[in-house]
Amino acid sequence: xxxxxxxxxxxxGLDSTTCLYWALDKGYTCETLTVSYGQRHARxxxxxQQIASKLGVKQHSVALNFPWLSTSSxxxxxxxxxxxxxxxxxxxxIPSTYVPGRNLIFLSVAASLADAVSADAIVAGPNAxxxxxxxxxxxxxxxxxxxxxxxxxxxxxQHGLEVLAPLMHLSKTDIVKLGxxxxxxxxxxxxxxxxxxxxxxxxxxxKLRARGFAEAGVKDGSVEK
Amino acid sequence: xxxxxxxxxxxxGLDSTTCLYWALDKGYTCETLTVSYGQRHARxxxxxQQIASKLGVKQHSVALNFPWLSTSSxxxxxxxxxxxxxxxxxxxxIPSTYVPGRNLIFLSVAASLADAVSADAIVAGPNAxxxxxxxxxxxxxxxxxxxxxxxxxxxxxQHGLEVLAPLMHLSKTDIVKLGxxxxxxxxxxxxxxxxxxxxxxxxxxxKLRARGFAEAGVKDGSVEK
Lengths: 225, 225
Known about the structure:
By secondary structure, the first copy, chain A, is α/β, with parallel strands linked by helices. Helix content of chain A is 39%, strand content 11%. Chain A has helices at 14-25, 43-55, 86-89, 102-116, 139-152, 154-158, 172-182, 204-216, and strands at residues 5-9, 29-36, 58-63, 121-123, 162-164.
């Protein structure tokens, strides 16, 4: 029996790297898809390539150039990434780092690739517990996009195409624990929204990550060398 | 009262040009979005620019470079556009011109733009009557993507974002009649899948268009100079 094929949306961050290791552990033959969209932390794309190469999985990288994405502070060079408290981060407000339609675009591109290569599943790393209030990270959104993909692609109509979000209901602490169990090379992953040489420690992503590692009692090799 | 804003997915073909004129007639302030994806009939992009300029509407153009789209005969340079009978075209089989995930990607990019510029609606020209059996042109698919867009974008969640497909249930003949009523400059539109100087007359798109004009009793200025 040949193994099932999965397209893993892979940014090189903690969550999507854990997803990739999860899918490999489940027996999927994985191909990764990394999307550059002008994000200031393009360093995550390097992390993705490094991890995919280490695993020997087939990588797909595409670059999008949509000028209007600069309305997001994660893309616009003249904007500042906010420094919020963890309480504000998880308050449900949509912050300036929200990128318009990002996960919808990512999933559509993944569906297109999955359709072209006759994959069985798409794996993505949204999380509705410890997240920044982005509307495109909720279970209802992912479920509905999954339905659309199965209605609107050849592979979906003729075979079925699963959209899997294994981290959806996990806390960041549980994601770190899962990653540790699966052997994720945390030191190679990149989460910081700012694109410096070392994580800034102040952005939403750094704060959520730090709390996750602290509560899991796991050392984060990317910041503690 | 300010007019509502619509993003019109606009290829420069007969259907999307009729959509643009329909949306303007409905009172929307329109911005067009034209997507290049390596299609061999890139000539349609020129048509789109010409028509949008004539109307004085704001144009957005983006180019996608996804290598796997060359599995479609509409993109792959080493493939041949099929010459099928109208009966075969409308048989419900998915032909080689199907582009994996095309409408899902188009609608996602439109949703992203609509989100960034705070639009009220997205207008697209799918048609489920005289079409080539593409799964991404059905009412069920469009309805489901509309739900996903309203769940997964800031604009959708906070305000609502309509996804309108005014041609969905019209025959090609009715589309020609509607276009004629709205003053669509048919001679500027481009439908042919092959990218020559004049329409080939043999591809699915040419055949469906020719039948539509013939049955509507309207002269097609793009082929009859």
